[in-house]
Design a protein that fits this description.
The chain is α+β, with helices and mostly antiparallel strands and 610 residues long. It has 20 helices and 23 strands. The longest helix is centred in the last third of the chain and has 20 residues.
Amino acid sequence: MVKVRAARPAEAEALTGLVMRSKAHWGYDAAFLASCAAELRIRPDEVTARRIVVAEDPEGTVLGLASLEGGAPLATLGLLFVEPSAIGQGVGRILYRDVLRRAVQQGVRRLVIDSDPHAAGFYRAMGAVAASTAPTASASPAGLPGALVRFEAAPAPLADWARAWTGGGRAVHVGNVAEFNAQFGDSSLDREQSAAHHYSCLAAFYSPYPSALVLPRAVPAGWTELVCRQLGWTGVEVYDGLVERGPGLVDAVRARPALAARLTGAGEPLVPWGLTRPFGLLAGRPWRAGELRYESKAAAHGLFGRILAEGGHPGIVLPAQARAAGRWAAARLLAARARAGESTVLKSEHGVGGSGTTVVTAGQVRAAGGARALLRRLPRGPLLVEEFVDGPADPGAARDLTYDGFVDPAGRVHEVGAALMDVTAGAYRGATVGPGAVPDWAQKPLLAFGAAVGRGLAASGYRGWFDVDFVVDAEGRLAPTETNLRLTGPSIAFMVAARLDALRGAGHLVRIADRVELGARLPEAQLDELCADLARGCAELGAVFVPAIPTGAFDPAPWMGVLVAARSLETLDAAEALVRSEAAAVGAMFDAFEPADRPPGPARGAGGRP
């Protein structure tokens, strides 16, 4: 394990030697290196003034050094050099991230980097942005090989909401997606909750920095290693393979006293996908009857109506909704709307990711042979009949938006932000968060109404994460459609954006794509190889790739969930297009690895691993 410490004045001569060896690694001739020597020399009286730190291995061997020079709000990365034998081992990454961390602590908001041309790719990969103006050739040592490449970074502290979410520290993430869903008995969800077990992989991202992941199914070791590398995590323990079928993840943890004690004994917060009675028992959190009542779409609609009745939200309109007493009552309501030529949204009382939600046009009712015939095709259970909100005429305009926030244990509402969702035929496909993702006109009314919903949830006794989903109508107003009292796909994107901003500098856009189709089922080793290739390909575009859901790759119809991040929408779109294209093209490469008699998934049992 490489550690970083302050350099000592007595090390100045040895550090100068390291700098010169590192510079020579790029093939510069002796004359050029001699011309650099005076500028690159480190004197004993400069070590403290230049804030020089070194990275050393467990034996105390110095592997690299870096300096943070100047003061707030503008500073310079004066030196960053790695011993040639250690180049490519992550030492530079550790030093660079340490410089950003120290810059934040010292109030620096702009960090200037004049890079050797050979190191430019490293700084791009670390998130630095090419400056609009670069030094002239004379700014390079002796001006011989050409100008240095100027980059800038914007050091940023962890977002205030992220600090409040877990107290600013690490957390234990419990992937109890199936357990949360099962408590509502939604008839639109499969009995074995196989999809929920896949989505439990999102437990990796329940906060910006986990200490442990608790997962129902076994996950590939290469997946967790890549995620940790991309997000700068160390020491993350993984406990997987606890429940292959059924929703009882937390019960499985509680049935293992040693594991339960390990997870709860460190004093770190336990973060679930959503609140359940078993989780309350594990976490020592009292279970409050009715705390999740606004997970009901009908109850949420009622809350929205009460908030609007109080006034103060002119940009918000509420679609009409009726709860049908039975299927025949629903058929009558649907038929009446179809006769009037109106489209209708049919909703189960509870559902996730669009399950249990169906948009029906008047033409579809006629084609099905009437409302009763159409309803026979839908899942059984309580049914809500809701007015369909026509969207903007421009097909490229924002249509589906969401607000994310949480209520802390003291009942305070924390705003996380707004996101643009990708929703197709009522089904959620993904979301984008970050600067410019949501239209400016929607920000104020969306955030104000979301905060009002948060206050209503807090007053009802709810404590935890929530979101409020909206659709945009033809007049550009926002229509709230439901609340989710749990973590969500957009929340995962917010967590990753907060981590990347703190790790690489401010300004990341993050997109989560729930389902990227694969051209073939992948053995574990080939999935690792694909993800590594995608990480490199996205880095070349100036983007970050993080695999989010790997276990779908072993399904008969293979897929995976992904996260991509960038600092512009154009780069973000290019990264997503690259990922989808490469994922679809794996068939020819990996067909030879397809086992004849079983899915090629992980086969490990429960246990911890770094």
